[in-house]
Amino acid sequence: FGYGHTGELARLAEIVHEKYPSSLKILVGFSMGGNIVTKYLGEEPERQKMFVGAVSVCQGYDIIKNGEYMLRWNRLARLYNWAITNDALKSTMKRHAKTMRGIYDQRKVAASTCIQDFDA
User: Any bridge partners for residue 101, and if so which?
Assistant: First the structure.
């Protein structure tokens, strides 16, 4: 499980920057995305020059420490994990499938049932 990897965001930022080099860009991340945005900008500070601003909203919990818990049914954690995967991650990927073609294995994304599968 590779939560916190920023390679995908880095590639997406490159694509957007190449396609719209003179556009002002703001990077926004919510929950897990907030963690990734913060990590992405901190890993290589020169990346910050591509954006006029960045917002990290409601940064999530430590998914590495909670990864096993998120696969259990205690307090419906597994259901929450499934809902995030289907309602947020997979639906976003489906909406942008044409743009993301070649970046992701869309069959693998469609088959994922939890964040861990989605990110594998």
Answer: 104
